[in-house]
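Researcher: Here's a chain I'd like modeled. Treat it as a single chain, no partners, no ligands.
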Amino acid sequence: MQDLLFVVDMQNDFIDGSLGTEEAKAIVPRVRELIDSYPADKVYFTRDTHKEDYLDTQEGRNLPVLHCIEGSEGWQIEASLDKRRETEAIDKAAFGSVELARLLEKLNEAEEIRSLRFVGLCTDICVISNSLIAKAVLPEAEVIVDASACAGVTPDQHRTALAAMKACQITIENE
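Model: Modeled as a single isolated chain. Structure tokens:
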């Protein structure tokens, strides 16, 4: 049985770039601590990935702030976390990742997954989306979100997302 850690979108634009927040900056040490507590081959990163035409997409029309443009500094995973990355990052063009679902199925076939812990940004957008995908793909695995290693767009939206995930039988730790 294996236990996995998923680090969601801990990218420069979400930490101290175009969409950065003080709450996002504050969780970096806790995320680093959790990464260090897992074997390197059990840690996976997602990376929000947009093209130059982002503002012409549905997401871009609803959130007209250029961010995480593929190859840019803002798209990069925060440097102190990226040094700990051994697995290839999962680039995702949407909040939730179909590639993540495929990876989970493949990993579970190789060795049953007991738990999946999610940390990162933003609790109310990409963390909740990918946690729910994991719960749908592996309903018997424990899906955990460490609230102390997540930040939302706002503190209120962070708390709302945690409550929604709890209602979907996702374990919330360190609220």
